Fold these 4 entries.
Entry 1:
Amino acid sequence: MDKAKPGEAAVVLVSGGLDSMVAGGMAREAGYRIFALTIDYNQRHRIELEAAARVAKMLDAERHVVMPLDLTRFGGSALTDDSIAVPGNGVMPGIPVTYVPARNTIFLSLALGWAEAVGATRLAIGVNALDYSGYPDCRPEFIAAFEGMAGVATREGGFKILTPLIDMSKAAIALEAARLGLDAGQTWSCYDPQNGRICGICDSCRLRAKGYAEAGLTDPALA
């Protein structure tokens, strides 16, 4: 990641998960002032919003905005429609039912609006194109297209989207969290918690467990 210029700021999309924490941590290490943005889209559980607040504090964010946006009005995803079950039979090929239609497009648009308002030049998002669950809005082509759109949709342009994890395995991300001294035990990744505990079988839980195992580390969230 390029080093920030003096005073340069980044709006970091903070979900409360491991990936967004590490992306934010790398932006902070590069010298960016951090503005943390969390979208409360009325997702399936509130635990990740609590985790997002912890992560924003860990990143020394100058401000943490939690933006309400009720995507249950649209539905179309197991994360926004209680009638659609979160699958627990392993990571399958194709786009899963946990994909929220156009979520990263919506989230990055909000981040872009805030960035323009506060004079930030960078947006940071923890998308990953290797160990991901088939989401089309985690691909490099999407990021490049959005960055191009941001250049013509704003007053002065010049925005860059920071995606430091896009080519990293989940194991590498776990190792990066440890290197940065970030407490992954404060994050939350599970799509379908049971009585406040991770389910252990959703795609997100499986990918995180696989990553930590391959990294030879113990997930602090399970300690």
Note: Helices lie at 18-29, 47-58, 103-118, 140-153, 170-179, 203-215.
Entry 2:
Amino acid sequence: MNTTVITRVADRQWHALEDDQVVGRGEVWPRLDGRLFLSIDSWHDAAFGRLADAMLADLPRPLYTMVDESDRDLRSQWERAGFTIRRREWVYVLPTDPQVTGLGSAHPPSGVTILPLGEADKDPLRTLDRTIRDEVGARAGWQEMPAEVLPRLDDATVVDPTKYAVAREVESGEYVGLLRVAPVPRQPRIGLIAVRADRQRRGIARALLAEVLGSLHRSGVRTASAEVGELNLAASALFDATGAERAGSNLEVVLH
């Protein structure tokens, strides 16, 4: 029987070896908010278990990872390691054609204009981003938001303003809403859509979505994707109303 040997090959990386051949890899990395997330890729269950044991023995708690909910085998492996479900994210696929989404007639409210992707100024965009993050933190908290939009420890909230469309008040010039797009190959991903608390329920989020999806459609992109926390009913309702389909779900699991 082959003996599996676990070696920590770097500060954040482990290898599982059998007969000097790599049969599994483990990695840990801190997300933007400082939480530690794990990843294990193994050739068989025994290597996964040995890697998990070695990594968990070396690392502080709590620890997190994301699992495709439909991957029952992988989910079971993490559960055997002691991880439990903390939250669920729905994975949406959104059509971009305004004749399908019904967003062709969606316009911002009076006194508000939408700046297309790439036209926002960095300083007011960062101000809005911090305001929205403070508001989220005071309510549900960033623990309920998708991991990729969590606050950064270094407070560098907006790295690339060209990825944002923005709602701006005409009279004051203030930015009051934003939508960020990650240019993932073949299917762009909507990473964040948010409106300042005192400007919500006026159709601003719908207008931002109409602008971005319409722009993608004109450039030949047929669909976009998005992840929405299960408890974010407002975002789910917005996407459902555009004909978006739930293509799956991810689970965030944790070991305390």
Note: Residues 5-89 form a domain with the Aminopeptidase fold (CATH 3.40.630.30).
Entry 3:
Amino acid sequence: MNRLDGKVALVTGGARGIGRAICEAYMAEGAKVAIADLLAEEAETLAAELGPNAMALALDVTDLPAISAAVARVEAAWGQIDILVNNAGIFTMASIEEITLEEYRRQYDINVAGTLFMIQAVVPGMKARGNGGAIINFSSQAGRRGEPNISLYCSTKAAVISITQSLALELAGDRIRVNAIAPGVIDTPMWEVVDGLFARYENKAVGQKKREVGEAVPLGYMGHPEDVAEPCVFLASEESRYITAQTLNVDGGNWMS
């Protein structure tokens, strides 16, 4: 359909899982895509598969000089960044007795500061070109509610919703739309880690939690990365031109708002 024809997108955490599906969907809609990830080799492999309109960027979203360099490289190569997807993030579990300052800083540095400073890096170019832009941040259903032993992760994802709302209002006059997606349980490689953590904290067999959360979804199954990528196309396209400051739940009915 080429809904993103002529657009340039930068996707963090783009090498695998939801990020990979977004990169593939954007390419299918006509965009050029910069795949930014700590997993540099996987990003390079994906870029090679997608062709000349894809580039790989080795990027740590906690490294501000690296963020600036990545944005400058994309703008030098393709002249612009129209779409930013802040998908990079981490998940860990810890009871209140186990939380450390180091882990607190790590989760906030990646999930919150990474989102904020990626936006800071792309906004000047978007403003200078005067054509607006689309920024899509990744929250989670965990940002909508508390969950035991996940206070750090839940609070970082709630912060992403708040950042989305504030920056949407701040940037509206420049026609830069800022929205977020709050996925539910999505079947990605990350869920192997999540399942293992729940096995420890809830004394479950490996694989049990993953099966249970899928069965508990009102639609009856875990989502797939493509289920998130398509709404991400919509929020980047002109079809959503009158939508900003919103967080879209993509969770099979787990949360109602």
Note: The first helix runs from residue 17 to 28.
Entry 4:
Amino acid sequence: MARSPRREALHWAATTPYGKLRGKGRVFYPPQPQEAHVSRTSLVADRSPQELDRLAELAEDVIRRARAAGASQAEVAASIDTGLNVNVRLGEVETVEHTRDRGFGLTVYFGQRKGSASTADLNPDSIQATLEQACAIARYTEEDPAAGLADPARMAREMPDLDLWHPWALDTEEAIALGQQIEAAGRAHAGITNSDGAGVQMGESVSVYANSHGFIGRERGTRHSLSLSLIAGDDEGMQRDYWYDSVRSATDFMTAQALGDKAAERTLSRLDARRLSTRHAPVLFAPEIARGLIGHLVGAVSGGALYRRASFLLDHAGKPVMPGWMNIVERPFIMRGQASGAFDAEGVATRDSALVENGVLARYILGSYSARKMGLESTGNAGGIHNLLIEAGAVDGGKDDFEGMLARLGTGLLVTEVMGQGVNTITGDYSRGAAGFWVENGKIAFPVEEITIAANLRDMFNGILAVGTDVDPRSHVLTGSILVDRMTIAGE
């Protein structure tokens, strides 16, 4: 749901007392393995139920006051986010940041005139001012036939526990020690010459969406991450790469050693990169890049682009957009899923639903406003999608892991990084800077850089030869690597 949080953060520079406690140049390593930090349960009282009650009571009260002020409909989105972010570099603390963000947004409707206002302050005076501003805006806006709350019959009635709440009892010193351990694991590899630092992030969020239909939806979730960026090489050639892990529960993290090894291996593998001559070749998108390719599909079939007639997939519902063996399904109820939820940003119940079925675009991605603009119904996607699962498969019926996908590629380009914004959703033209590896006979031959890959998204989607089983779980778009039959590779 839409939020307008104000960051209330305390920052410490590298001169933080935590750095001084360790002494200049010294690196502290915890006596316990990394799992000791990520598996222990919270030792502090969980106040999320009380915070949710407080937000729900506030939302109900503001909606009553909005109706008393003349609003025919009203909706409120309120949230409280807390977190700890620590960054270390070369064994020393760079930043420690504690955050507590509050967001409160109100939308009122006077008939079909809409007004919205928000604040990051939950005190009564600020809430009253927000209410007055929203009502004043609505009284002066033009009527919009598509404005209004979602259909009351579509409101979610069941709120299953999707296992999204896993507070991480991590104090600042432990976070620093864990970051140092991750960085040390990466820097221990021969050939790694420098570090851009390791990060440890812990986050908790509680939120409420309520509207004048009587709907009150409560959500709470945690999201934690670890990351490391390294540098390899010398004055004649340097390369940088990284790795990260993002989870709902810290018990699901890869180990500090594994993350450091992964970041180092990726960085070292890019040394002595070459440019390619311009050519046409098949292209294999690594899983973390392939999800961006699916993201372009999502953007092209989303309501905002469609009702503005700014999509190359306009009027394509019920038509083939991908090979006949491909299926893409939305799964909102995946346990611990990155985007799991029982309702969307308007309170509409989510449901398992095909987006692409046997290559055919089964539906669009719509909230209530865009659906009304198009004469359709909401698909429960106000605020975005809820876990897209791209089913593994291939034109010949096979299912391959990453090694099998390389073999299927044969000779061509493996893309592990893209850059630039060269994607036109109106025409489908795709042209982006890229880096990765040239593959020959199913084996990685050498790294490549400073190239551009180009095609049209319509041709790329129809030209997908295979989707791997090597799914990257760190995103709400769950896809393995994707093999496209032909693209232009521009180099020297």
Note: The radius of gyration is 25 Å.
